[in-house]
Every structure is written in structure tokens, then in C-alpha cells.
Amino acid sequence: MNQLLLIPIVAFAKLLTLALRVSGRGSGTALPGYLIGRYFPFVLEALVSQIPVVVAITGTNGKTTSQTMLSAVLDQMPGARVLRNKAGANLSQGILSELLKQSNGFGRLDFTHAVLEVEEATLPRIATLLKPNIIAVTNLYRDQLDAYGEIDRTEKLIRDGIAQCPTAAVVVNGDDPRTARLTQGLGNATYYMSLAPEYARFLPYEGKLNRRLPDSQGLEATNIRINEDLTTDFSVQGRMNDQGVHLPQAKTVSPGFFHVYNGLMAIAIANLLGIDGATAIAGLQTFRPAFGRGEILTRAQGEKQVNYRLLLVKNPASFSLSLELLRNIPALKLMLAINDNTADSKDVSWLWDSEVERLTQADIDWILCTGIRAKDMVVRLKYALDTPPSPSPTVESIRQAIDLSFEKANPGDTVFVLPTYTAMLEFRKLMGKTLDIV
Amino acid sequence: MPYALTITHLYPDYLNLYGDTGNLIVLRRRCQWMGIDCTVKSLSMGETAQAGQTDLYFMGGGQDTDQVAVVEDFHQLKYDAIRADTEAGVPFLGVCGGYQLMGHTFLMGNGEETRGLGIINVSTRAPGTEVKQRCIGNLIGEIAAATYADMQTLYASPRAIPRTLVGFENHSGQTYLGDGVEPLAQTIAGFGNNATAEHEGARYKNVFGSYMHGSLLPKNPHFADYLIGLALRRRYADATLTLPALADTEEFAAHDYAVQRYG
User: Fold this and answer.
1) pTM of this prediction?
2) What is the predicted ipTM?
């Protein structure tokens, strides 16, 4: 009966999406999902259950990148058709909207895999509907305390989500003490992703770095090398399903240690889905950074061309790690774009938990602060640096900051832009790139 | 005479919720810029406090489980010494969860009221019907008259300092001030101590509490200086001791912006 009911509901959703688009009131990623999720709660399960393999990715950082990497790997599989939700649409209504959008007029979905980014607090609410075969948890950093309260609570929510899926294989960050203990006391098969300890100690985890037990399953990255163009080389070794894994040459085009975990997760999940290591690594090579996560945008006027490399900062962890990368860039040109809209966190206290002091040893050519909270950023810089760039140019308007940075940069320079989420959206829009999200 | 100052950070590994470390960065840097030799010591779980060993206490907020863990330890190993210090005028700043914790009772996330440290006569209770949700948002307050007047005597030469404090609050507990405790500021924007009182924070002798969580001092350098000044005046038994004025252009720009945008 449900299947018959689906037809008029899906038709309604498609009409609504069309109406929203035609009337210019958004791209229709949230409202249809919201209405249908509210009035016809069975629809999510009815749609997603048609897809044979469902992977849910959650955690505070790296959901989007892990999703994009895994999709790139799955695309190497002949006959694979992968459904994914776009970043930002990771609440239940966003996931439902994507399923509605991708289904045909009869509510049929023709996909082999769903790779879904799921917001942390949403996981326990929809876990029994999604019935994921695999749950991946990237990490649990302090993030958006004004939205969720406490990180202890977020950890509990994810654990509750996993507990609802006793047959799901769980892939977790094995260094992060919060994610490494998620399946303790649960029967789920668990795979731990780790960096060799000499790298993991740079990472600002909550609490003491977890050390993997010798008999545990999982992958470890060694010989990590971050190249000057911010691509990252690493080796992978470990055990998956009691089989040894040894992959000496893996590479991601996204910068830094964070993305090594994402790469490991993609390789591990691919392994669980029956894809061999060499194919997974080849797939990873085809990956291109998701918007804002290391992508490069170029601005040209006449002969002059300047590159802007975007490294999204969402919380102290991602900010500190991006600064760690920039420490070795010669004659660093840096734009810090800090907004305090709801999607960024309305509270800018997190700037003080970020280790801006890591810039002390950097070779700084200039720093420009912009965004709604540019002035707060300037104060943070002043207290972090022994010799703050003086005077610190500050322009609230991101449009003006782009103009000013273009003037200051030499032809061919790369300006590193560290924007909060909405500052990143605005920056991209001003550079002529937009996203299909609400 | 070169001045020196010892700051004690209480339970830094348990109470360090969100931007709390900003307050210590600011105190330390400003001391450095003013030529004051500043030492920051931590006093954590299992360590016994000695009276007369420090010039300034700081305590941040923590997760519920950590806050509860701290209470037992505090009463066993620290209460007598710290209470003696604060009664003798040693400045103490507690922010957000740290502020609630300083009182007689504080509130946990599950709505349960628990015994606090009891060094200031305030109590925090569960919200009744007056607030539906957590008190979250930007908070602007006008500093109480007596405190503001005292703040202005601090500098070697007269300087203009804001009458306001700016910060961000995020709490469900409602704090009520008992006898002998004055509000730190009148609220201009935001909730402050509780949904009805229209005041924010507390002062008892030189003990200060504020709901401006995390990084309170970075955008309120006049308050940071006031704490440093009170600590030095007490340590050197010189009520007329003054501080040099730092060039706080960036700090006051951020402060004024917050007042205009959120006030």
C-alpha cells in the first residue's frame, strides 16, 4: 500500500520543487522534504530501502570530503550508480528532498549505492529508516556549541544512532578518543582509521589520543608527505576483514592530515564493498576537492591573474589544522573571512580556542581580515602574533576584500582564503560560483 | 619597581569549555605589554590550594560531568584556602559554567540542581515558565556605577574607556544574587543572570562572575586591566597604584562594533 501511496506524494513533491524554482524561491532542497517528512513519515524509508547499499557518514569535520572521495572511488565500479546528498542538505528533510528529487514519477530509485552525509544529531532520528550497511564517523571536535550544547551529548547521539543499527559495519577515526569508543559495548564490526602517531599528535582531539589495540581491524597511514602544491602522499597498511592491506602509494589532491583520514575511510569502505585497493587508490586520484575544501578559484583582469585557495574553517580544529599547513608556505598571503551567521556559529569564542599562534613561525607577506566579525579576528591575531602585521587591513565587506587582495597580490600569486561557511558561500558567489543549496 | 603577578587557572583540564583560554591569553599578553612579570599556574584535581600564593584566580566553564567532579575536589582540597584569599580581596573571575559553579547551587543539563563551590552568595536554578529555551545570544551590559568609577582610577593618565561589557551567553540556568552581592552590569541586550532581573554577572568584594562565556576579556580590555590592577594593588598594598594605558585600538574597535550591532 505504501508503494501506491508513494506515487501521488512524489508527484506532489516534484510539482512543489518545480514551483519553488520557477517562482525563484529557492532550489527546493529543503521544503518538499520538510513537508513530506512531517506528514508522510514512511516515505523516507520507502524510498531509501530501494537502494541496495547505504553508507551514512557523520562527524563534525570531513563529512563532505569523505562523501566526495567515496563517490569518486565507487564510480570506478562498473555499473555503479551512486546517489548522494549535497553538502548542507544533511538533515532529514535535505536527505528526503534529494531522494524525492532523484526518484522517477512512480517513486522508483534506480541506484546501486547511496552515500549520505548525515548531520550528527540527525543520525539517531533516522537510523532505523536508513538502515545503513555502513556508518562512518569522521571525528568529534567541539563545534557549534550554541547549536548543540555539549560535545558529550553529540557523542551520545551518534552512539544511539549506531545502537539502532546492530548489523552495520562501523568505520571510525581510530585516533579520536571520542569516535574510537563509540561501539564499545555494541556488537558492530568496527574498523579504525589512524595516522601513524608522529602525525596524529598534531591533531587537536578532545582528550588523550587513542592508541589502537594491536588486534583491531583498520587502516593506518604512514609516510605522509604534504607537497608544496598542498597535495598529500601517504602509504596505507592494516587489516580489513582479516586480510592484510598494503598500499604504498596513495595520494589525495586535498591538503593536509584531515584529508588523509577521509582518504583512509574511502579506501576502507570501498574494501568492505568489495573494491580492491588498487582500484580504490585510482578512484581517489580522480577526486576533486568539494567546494571550499581546498578548491582553487582564479580571478583575472587583463594580464593579471591571481589564484585563491579556499580552506573552509568551521571550528577550532579545522582552523588550527589549516594554519598548520600554511606555516610552510613562502611569503604567505592570507585572507581570514569570519562571519557569525547561524550556519557559522553565532558565537565567535571559538577563535580563541583556535591555535592562531601556529602562525608565529610562518613567513607572512600580508594578512587581510574580512567578514562580519573581521574586527574580532584582528584582535585574535594581535594577541597571537609576536609581531602582528601592522597596520592590519580590515574590511568587513568580502567584495572589497577581494578587490583589495587582488590589488595587493602579484600576478600568479596564490592567496589563501580561510572562510567560515557563509563567508565561503559569499566568496564563491562573488567569484562567480554558486552552489545548488538553500 | 618592576611588578610581578601570579595567576591561578583553576581546573584548566576540566573547565575549558569554549574560548575560556582567550581570557588567559589576554591577561598574560597585557601583563607582558605593560612590563608586568606574569606567571600562570594551574591548580587542578587532586592538588591542594594554599592561601596567599596567588594574586588572581580564573575559572572557566565545563561539561556537566566535569563540573560535578570538580565540586568534591574543591571542597576537600581548596575551599578553605581560596575562601580565605577571596575574603581578603584576591580577585577571582568565573565565567559561564564557572560562574554558576562558584555559587551555592548550580544547575546541570538534566535540570538537576547540585551543590556548588560556595564562594559567592548566588544560586542558580532551573528555568521556570519565564524562559522557554536556553538563553543564547550576544549580551551587552552597562557596568555598575561603583565598579566603573573605580575602573577609571586605574590608569596613570585619564583615558576614555567604554561603560559597556560585550560577550556571548549560552545557559539555561537562572542565577539569583543573594545578600552582599551586586550585579556586575545592567543588561542592554540579552538575558544576563536571569530572564526577569535585567542585570548580568555578579561582584562580591573582588570576586566576579559573568555569563559572558569563553572569551570575555579580549573585547573588554578595560575589564582585563581592572582585574590586573586590583590584583597588583592588593599584592603591593598600594591603593593608588596605576597602570600604563595600552593602545587598544583593535580591542575597542571590536567592542564598539559589538555594541552597535547587537546592543
Assistant:
1) 0.78
2) 0.94
